[in-house]
């Protein structure tokens, strides 16, 4: 049996959705650098699901269908209003809401190709509506419906803030969505595939994936990056803060990667965007601190920034609340999860690895009344 802690280096499936080869990330064979520079997020979703880039007409129809699918069942919106919303994390709300959304979908348990594509559209559109609706409801505002003439990126920012974003913000957010859309067999995608490989439904697969994304070693890192930057608060404090973190053997959020050895190709786009947005906002403190953190972590630890590091200052500059950073990751990544779920159904086999047993052996069972009652076992 092959043993690999954390499944490092294990090839668990074949896939044609995305690849990381020699530190180059591609979606369906297209370099993510090209997609980030030229494509809309809707185009990327289409590419991931339908395996080729859309024509203009296909893209228009796809975009319209996404907008038409975005409204939430009234029962779900009412339920969000009743949540103890000052205390709960939006990732918990999102995970719960996706699970509930299944109850409003008559096709939830229908695992045919046609039903799966229809559900894909509803899930993609409604997940972002849930994130925006929760953010507004907890501020005492009413949720907003998307506008027919806006892009997916602009619509999300509009549904969040109630204002149509300027061109720079829309472009930056679109790019962030493109860069987060898919990433081979990352932890949440693997979780989604494990879930649906039991022939469970797409809503269950996405709900499971959300649970995995939430953790700080995965999608939860972007919120923690911002927390770290806020704690540091000024460029001069970067060095002492990091030295203390190194001494305490703490992990620096937004750095390191299981697969990339010479750096995450998405990070440079986000660094560039962070610089640009800082300039537009007239506040370069977060960008400057991020650069200082990168320099020190790189030289002292040899670690490079991953996708989460600069997305923190990008989202902060877009005036997005910090606890929405990971849900926004999901707004994008659900497109990749769905592509992988569809692929898993196409050629399914139950995913069931083995564990090497290291526990006690050959234990003799003693009936409860005959056991030594003085023994205190801590659990
Ligand atoms: N800060 C400090 N040290 C680190 C970091 C970090 N961010 N990342 C790795 N290391 C060190 C580890 O302490 C370990 O050192 P050791 O061998 O002396 O014990 C060594 O590098 C290997 O690290 P592992 O955690 O074993 O690497 P793994 O491949 O399992 O983990 C991970 C990859 C989870 C991304 C890790 O680098 C990490 O925890 N980074 C911080 C969290 C983060 O940014 N997560 C987002 C990843 S991207 C994404 O999921 C969207």
Short summary:
The protein is mainly alpha-helical. Helix content is 55%, strand content 3%.
Q: Can you offer a commentary on this structure?
A:
The protein is mainly alpha-helical and 379 residues long. The protein has 2 domains: 16-216 and 323-346, Orthogonal Bundle (Citrate Synthase, domain 1); 222-317, Cytochrome P450-Terp, domain 2 (Cytochrome p450-Terp, domain 2). The chain is built from 16 helices and 3 strands. It has helices at residues 32-38, 41-50, 56-68, 74-81, 90-101, 113-137, 152-161, 167-180, 187-196, 202-213, 221-232, 238-247, 265-281, 285-301, 307-317, 325-346, and strands at residues 18-21, 24-27, 30-31. Strands 1-2-3 form a 3-stranded antiparallel sheet. A hairpin with a 2-residue loop joins strand 1 (18-21) and strand 2 (24-27). Helix 2 (41-50) packs parallel to helix 16, helix 6 packs antiparallel against helix 16 (325-346) and helix 8 runs antiparallel to helix 15 (307-317). The longest helix is centred in the first third of the chain and has 25 residues, at 113-137. The radius of gyration is 22 Å and the shape is globular. It starts with 17 loop residues before the first strand and ends in a 33-residue tail after the last helix. Acetyl coenzyme *A is lined by residues 6, 186, 217-219, 221, 251-258, 301, 303, 306-308.
